[in-house]
Amino acid sequence: MKKRGLFTAILIVLCILCFKTYNPENSSGETYLNSSGNIHNGGFIIKTDSAYYYTNHNDNDKLYKKDPNGENAELIAGNKFYYEISLLNGYIYCISGSPGKIYKISPETGRKKLLVNKLASSLTLTEKGMYYILSEYDDWGKLYFANLNGRKRRLIAQNITRFSVTGDDVYYINSDDGNSIWKYDAAEKKSEKIIDCGASDIVSDEGSVYYTVKD
Which residues of 72-103 are buried (b: 16+ CB within 10 A; e: fewer)? Predict the structure, then answer.
């Protein structure tokens, strides 16, 4: 694992990672998982072979889609702020509200299914399930993993400020340990401290972790 502590270099890397998405599946049930870098900056858009799905800031942050050529904007769902968007097996997973709850939405009908009935943030999807941080009162900062129906929750860590997912590894800033960086191995279900520092931000990509340090 590489470690980079130079602030300017990290900013450049963050900008690059913000525009990455992952496409482990491309069939009738399209799957395009937003990258940790993009989720880190709101996850307001995702591009597939068939459409753009995005938060329309010009229409009260409603959820829209467009053709791949950028034409034919179409409303999918309205009323609330939509962000941290991913597409899995043909369905949109996102947070609605700021902070908001986690929903699964049909791009064709706009029908919504509530998956997590708690205020959450930093929704990051994998093909096995979802990671998110709770943003409610006494539950604030708790990092959870749940299956794709929002059930079988598992507490990963508490008092987390930021996290980033790469494969089976979850890197997070632990505010209970001086904002040091820890890694959770989802396969082994174990956590360990990997960098002793006062980190303020973090993003991971392909086995590397990039972070900024508080002055």
Answer: eeeebbeebbbbbbbbbeebbbbbbbebbbbb
pLDDT tens string, the chain, 215 residues long: the values are 444 443 333 433 444 344 444 444 433 478 888 888 888 889 999 998 889 999 999 999 999 999 998 899 999 998 779 999 999 999 999 999 877 999 999 999 999 999 999 999 999 999 999 999 998 776 889 999 999 999 999 999 999 989 999 989 999 999 999 999 999 999 999 999 999 999 999 998 877 899 999 76
Which residues touch 170 (CB under 8 Å, ≥6 apart)?
131, 143, 156, 163, 164, 183, 184, 186
Distance CA 65, CA 80 (A): 16
Beta strands (DSSP E) in the chain are: 3-4, 21-25, 31-34, 45-47, 52-56, 62-66, 74-77, 82-88, 91-97, 100-105, 112-125, 130-134, 143-146, 154-157, 160-166, 169-174, 180-185, 190-195, 199-205, 208-213
pTM (2 d.p.): 0.83
121 residue type, one letter: S
